[in-house]
Amino acid sequence: MVIISQDMIKQFQTLIESVDEPLKNTYETLQSKDIQLRRWFGFLKQEMGMSRRPTKMSAQILLDCLEWRIQNEIDKILSKPIVPANFYRGVRDSQLIGMSGYTKEGRPVIAVGVGLSTYDKASIHYYVQSHIQINEYRDRVILPAATKKFERHISTCVKVLDMTGLKISQLSQLKLLTVISSIDDLNYPEKSDTYYIVNAPYIFSACWKVVRPLLQERTRKKVQVLSGCGKDELLKIMDYESLPHFCRRTGSGSSRHSRSSTDEDNCFSLDHGFHKELYSYINQQAEALESQAALIKHKSFHVAFPEPDADDEKIAQTIESEFQKYSDQNGVADKLNDLTVNEDKQKK
C-alpha cells in the first residue's frame, strides 16, 4: 500500500509553483490540483520506489506530461471535432468505446470493444485524437459530474473490455494499441481502478497466460478475467442499467449490435446518450473558438506519440508468437507479416 503524506504533496505543489507560466496554466486544467498530485505521486512511488520526497527524475516525469500537453495543444483538443460527421461516424464505428453508467460507488463504467474494433476507417492520428478526446472529456466533464452526483470525490473509472470477435488478423492493430497504451501510461496514469475482461475466447486465454507475467505488478493486479459475459460478477459492483450491452446476455459472447439491445442501449452507438453528449460538447467548444468555415476543413489533429519502449515491444512480440503458435496448430491462414497501421488511409 502506497501512503502519500501531506508533506509529499506540498513538495510537488512547490514544484508546480516554480515552473514557467505555460506549464502552470495547463496544470490548472487538470481536475483537482491536490487529487492530481496525489495520483501522480502514488503512481511515481509505485513505479520508482520513492520513499520520502520527489526526486529529480520523478519531477521530470510530471513536467514531461505538462510539456506534452502544451506542445500538442491538449487543452484545446475538445474544441477540435473530427469532421465531416459521416467520417466521424466511421471512426466511432471502428473504435468501439463508450460509457454505460456508474458503479454503485459512483465510478464511471467505460466499455471497450477490443475484439470488434477494426481501426480501418482512418489513419492512426484520428484514432489517437479520438482516444485523447474521450480521456479529456472523462477528466474534465464526466468525473466532476460524478463527484457532484454522488457527493464524494470521484477521480477514477472502471473499464470493461469485451473480447468478442478477437482474431489472429487483429495483430495489425498492435502498433496503434501500443501507442494508445503508452499515451495513457505517460500522461493519464492511475485513472482506471479495475480492468474487467469479458467474453474472452480461447485465443485470449492462451495468450494471457504468457503475457500476464510480463505486465507491471500494478497493472496486473487491476486485471480481472471474468467468466462468460461477466454479468453476475459485474452486478456486484453496479446496477443492471449500468451494465454494458455486451454483458447483458444470458450466455457468453456478444455482438456489436445485439438483438436484445437498441442503439440507445448500445454504449458504442452514436445514438447512445454518452456519445450524443460528447459530440455536442466538442462542437459547442469548437463553435466558441472558430468560425463554421474552419470547422468543415477535413484534417486530423496530430498528436505526438512515443515510440513503443522495449517492454511494450517484448509484450507485442510475445502476443504475436503465441498467436502464431495457435495459427500453426489450427491451420489458420491469417498473414502476420504486416504489423503496422496504414497511416495513409485517409479520406481526402
UniProtKB/TrEMBL annotation:
CRAL-TRIO domain boundaries: 84-244
PROSITE patterns, sorted: CRAL_TRIO (PS50191)
Xref: Pfam families: CRAL_TRIO (PF00650)
Source species, domain of life: Eukaryota
Name of the protein this chain belongs to: CRAL-TRIO lipid binding domain-containing protein
SMART domains: SEC14
